[in-house]
Amino acid sequence: MIELEKWFATEEEIIEGKTTDVYFVRTKECLKEDNLEKIKVWTEVTTGGIPRDGKNLVFLGLQDVLHLLSEAKLPVNVYSIKEGTVLPYTDINGVKLPFLVIEGNYGDFAIYETPLLGLLCFQSGVGTSALRLRKAADDKTLLSFGIRRMPPTIAPIIDRACYIAGFDGVSCVLSAEKLGIDATGTIPHAFIMIKGGIKDAMISFDKHINPEVSRIALADTFNDERVEVLQALDAIGEKLSGVRLDTPSSRKGSFRDIIREIKWELKQRNREDIKIFLSGGLNEESILELRDVADGFGIGTYVANSPTIDFALDIVELEEETIAKRGKFAGRKQIGYCEKCHTFLCDDFSKEEIECQVCGKKMSKLLEKVMENGNIMTKLPSSEMIREYVSKQKEKLKEI
Ligand SMILES: [Zn+2]
Predict the structure, then answer these.
(1) What pLDDT, on the 0 to 100 scale, is given for residue 3?
(2) Which of 73, 106, 203, 385 could disulfide-pair with 41, CB 3.0 to 4.6 Å?
(3) Mean pLDDT of 110-123
(4) Which residues sit opposite 313 in a β-bridge?
(5) Is-contact 240 206, C-beta < 8 A?
(6) How far is the CA of 323 from the centre of ligand 1 (A)?
(7) Where are the alpha helices (DSSP H) in the chain?
């Protein structure tokens, strides 16, 4: 093992169940000794809320959960809502929605609760933030720049969630490769410093980099943004397609006014086509404030460091008897969804038809069987397909 991997869990270790909490290992031991390892349970993944006062969450991480359970060869059945579904955490009556169900012998899968929740909580958390940012940015460009805030092993997971939620691009080379898109980026301050200024940096970039790559100048290293934008324009003229302002907070003053001045100068030179991208400590609030004067945003910490959705896995049926711990709802549940009223309703899982409480029409059932006896039953959709699914739902939602 190389030193870099020392503190990264390997795929084998995860599949072996070594990234679990020790209490599950001890529970399994006790159940085995008491001959209860094969006790049949129906368990549900639910949550008690959505961070940042959210109204809806984006459910992500299902494919990884299915791969984990299948690689670990667990003889379980799994029912789940579709990956990428955007929905509240309770139904119309305040009953917590079961996003995913695992049915099987408790002793078989108990130790996997920890890693499977980790996969769902983190990805759904990033996806939910990313969708809120998408909504805030409206039709402006959104780029994922946050991978440097998290361990490199999870860079593609962060970017996948952002892309599925509707970000236009990602900066990470590996993420872009996996998503089948081109990585997006400008130039770093370090390069401008080495070249002694924006002018020589842009001349070098233009000389050496594939002409298909957009020429976007980072215009805030040594001087006033307006001055550096004009220097970049002077350096490569018509090839300049955009500028990025990463202005440090100590220099920001009125960011809107800085942008307005730049736009005015560009207009005077008949270069209103030059796009203005902003980055550096942006969040939903600052995007809403600046979206009318900017063409795009690079989002880093705010999305990479998204609060997780705190999913829990709980037993709601034990040997075919309904049961629930305090704060949970007992029994097998299906989620009914009425497209017309956009309402969700928990009802008895075995019920043939679920009726909308608002319009009385037949609801569609959201929990589908996706794993039988450890085998994945469906063809898993690509990230592009999940992205389209999220986008369609977003149109109907007033708030995320
Ligand atoms: Zn209805």
Answers:
(1) 85
(2) 106
(3) 98
(4) 45
(5) no
(6) 30
(7) 11-15, 22-33, 62-71, 106-109, 113-137, 155-164, 173-179, 189-195, 198-208, 225-236, 255-268, 284-290, 301-304, 383-396
What is the Å distance from ligand 1's center to 355 Cα? 8
Task: Sort strands 321-322 and 311-318 into parallel, antiparallel or unpaired.
Answer: antiparallel
Q: How far is the CA of 338 from the centre of ligand 1 (A)?
A: 5
How far does the centroid of ligand 1 lie from the alpha carbon of residue 376, in Å? 32
CA distances for 8 relative to 117, 118, 124, angstroms: 18, 15, 21
Q: What residues have a C-beta under 5 A from ligand 1, the ion? A: 338, 340-341, 356, 358-359
CA-based nearest residue to 110, from 186, 38, 199: 38
Instruction: Name the percent of the chain in helix, strand, coil, to the closest 5.
Output: 40, 20, 40
pTM above 0.85, yes or no: yes
- CA 364 / ligand 1 centre spacing (Å): 10
**C-beta atoms surrounding 337 within 10 Å:** 19
Q: Report the percentage of the chain scoring pLDDT > 70.
A: 100
